[in-house]
Amino acid sequence: MPTPAPHTADATAPAAPVADASALTGKRRIAFASFVDENYLPGFLALLRSLALSNPDVCEDFVVLHDGLRPASVAAVRALHPRVKFRRVNAAHYDSYVKGDQDNYLVRKAYFILDVFRIRDYDTVITLDTDMVVLGPITELLTLRHGLAAVPQFFYGDKTRMLNSGLLVIQKEYLTDAFCAKIDAIGRAGTYELDKHDQGILNALLDGDFVDLDPRYNFVKRRLSGDLPVPEDTAVLHFTGRHKPWQGGEAGYGLAQERWAAFELTDAELHAAYLESGDTLHHDLLVHYGTPHVARTGDVDTARKVALAHIGAGDYQAAVDILERVRLPIDEAWPHEVYGHALMSVSRYDEARAQLLLATAAPNRAATAFARLAQIAWVHGDDDRARAHATAGLTVDPTHRASRLWHQRTVGVPAQPAGRPEDQLAHVAFYMDRQGNAGDKLLPESVRLAFGPDTGPRRWHSVHAHRLFDEAALERVNARRGLVIGGGGLFIPDTMPNGNSAWQWNVPDDLLARVDVPIAVYAVGFNAFDGQSYRAERFRSSLRLLVERSAFFGLRNHGSIEKVRAMLPARLHDKVRFQPCPTTVTRHLIDGWQDPVAREDTILLNAAYDRAGLRFGHDYGHFLAQMAQAVRDLGALAEVKCAAHSLDDEKLAFDLRREHGVSLPVIPMYDFANDEIRDLYARTKLVIGMRGHAGMIPFGCGTPIISLISHPKMAYFLRDIDRPEWGVSVHDRDLAAVLVERARDLLADHDRTVADVHGRQQELWKTTEANAADLRALLGG
């Protein structure tokens, strides 16, 4: 193999380290918080159980403030919540507050909860008192974005507006040193009502300036005196007063006491109740409760649910592990189908086939099982068998989308023309299907254009990244003059999972090690979402071998460079260099490119919906409402159209019309040829896009962009071109106003903005040209 090219093309490295993912995406970090000690531990455990059972789809971090808990108590809390964070309070903060009440537990508890305002890791913190139980949905609290919210309370004979501090929803502007300093000043001065403790301090500080919550979110026990029933719409029941339910309760509140007692469960009882609590179970809680339940009972249905949760999170080996712990009945198809899915995802293909064939016996699972069998056959290069399985799936269910896709992939597959191998480069990429993502469809051709104008089979030998790289594929690659790997964010664990590499190229280490032509990794991206991780050492090992074997290793943004270098030994860091995505320099790659003489008076809007939970969190309703307002306001600047890179992207237009009465024309870019994609983006005035290539492709065509940031890669790109202001987080409180203001600025002097895009692009082109010189020395041509 030729000597690796010298590292000469990384002069544009950013001055500061790339921030963490949540800082880049603006995704809100939410946590619950309580002050807990041994006296109130029984109440807190009941609170955790009630939260899980009443809101089975909610599992945020839970911060436990304490001034000393026994190890057994810590273990009991951890058993009930998978995302608990323990923080010891500093009692010295409050020594000057308590004034002789140091031994009063209620006073200590009231003051120590004030430590919640010293939390700096979250954007929203929801406090829950340890004498509460959650009886109904509280998702509304998770969507609050402004201020400090609480249920107002009134003391007898006192009409002053005050808050009840048992439940607070606190936004980040209050989680500051400045606000804590104000708390300390009032606490030391004693200018508050001593009998109300923490709420006295907060009321003195806020003076009635807080956001009202409905009383159902902090429904106090005293309203039920005389054994009144708890109202059906109560979301949070608060056992105020000195007589707590775990201490026997108080006369006159028997029905309320019964509601609390319903959560006095053993761990085994909780697990069983949670698993039966609904169809929408949070991944973390399902795994946390379901795993011991399976170990205790051997329940197959629970094992299947837990396995599906692991698969959804990209933890395929864990899915295999839990299903291997139980005996799967021959006549229950669904567990076999899930087990087959997990096995194929870790490349145990023969075992997967056996499980999936068992699953085809049941009509309700057969189509999915046949589609997975078709996928396995296609991965192994057997188009005929893949087509047969896909046809069987369509016979069971003619509407089955996955079966139809696999059938289309194997029908009329043209044989590659026989070019001379010594004249060709092999090209590993994700080659998108018809009606697939428009950006991914364009990428392989764009990579090839960076190596010359001939992008066809005379010069290129295609290797689909998702097909198993076997001995025959190795022989074909080694017959070429080099191997190029590139075309998108190939470093992602779950697009087409495999156990050979744990990224998109399905290549075993021993075959990768035997590639004996020069390897050039070109403009690949590290595409993990905020909240998504590579869990297996398998990926790190494959990545390390790939870098070692590569003569050129270029990543498409400095964020990816930082992430990849962190997974490599220091000796390999310098091999990782910057190579912009070739779509960002399209104007320089297309022979005879002509910038448009005139542009259409349009703004193209794109949104993405794959992995929507990771993109939006609890903020999709907020995003949609903001986009509705933005579309109305942008309409005064130009006609707004929805640019759908994939079929799923049309959801934006559907939801805007259904929820807000806003209609958008939809452009089905998934049906476009590559030249049509480039032409559309070159002729519009502005593109507002959430997909990475809904930003990079129009930018490469010379069109101004604004990125809707829901993935770190968007911020990485804008940072590399030194235009972070061209992005706005989908979580931004004022998304519509910010978006419209930036669009107006970019359109106000459109020629100047286009010239700025060209200037930013020129810097990327300089890097691309410098790298091209190194690649010519390596690969020829």
From TrEMBL:
Keywords: Transferase. The keyword Disulfide bond does not apply. One of its GO terms (molecular function) is glycosyltransferase activity. Residues 483-709 form the Polysaccharide pyruvyl transferase domain. Gene3D superfamilies: Spore Coat Polysaccharide Biosynthesis Protein SpsA, Chain A (3.90.550.10), Tetratricopeptide repeat domain (1.25.40.10). PANTHER family: GLYCOGENIN SUBFAMILY MEMBER. This is Polysaccharide pyruvyl transferase. It comes from Streptomyces antibioticus.
